[in-house]
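Meet our chain:
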Amino acid sequence: MVALDPRTVFVLVGINDLLAGAAPEALAARHVALVAELRRRLPRARIVVESLLPIRDELVAREAALTSATVRGANALLERGATAAGAEWLDVAAGLADATGELDRRYAGDGVHLSAAGYRAWAAILRAHL
């Protein structure tokens, strides 16, 4: 990616870490390190950190460590880290969530992965931010 010298880099990583049981604080620390490395290697690039996408609690496996509350808590930490690292924050979750803060049913596949409609909504959010 560095050889391509992009003008803008969107960063969205971490939901699988949370699903595997990683603590939001550990995820946030790795996120800050990633953004710092991107900034070091791409000093002129615009770095946009996206919030983790919302999920639907009732569709995620009951034994999973991943919940909507965990995602929201992680997003709060990621936002602080992105800002501190000099990156832009893009709250994608707000555009894909329903009134309860969970992934809108229109965009839900299995509770974690987006449906085609979800991907279209996400793409619209990204296009509007470019």
Notes: Strands lie at 8-11, 46-50, 88-90. The chain is about 45% helix and 10% strand. The chain has a mean pLDDT of 90. The two ends are 19 Å apart (CA to CA).
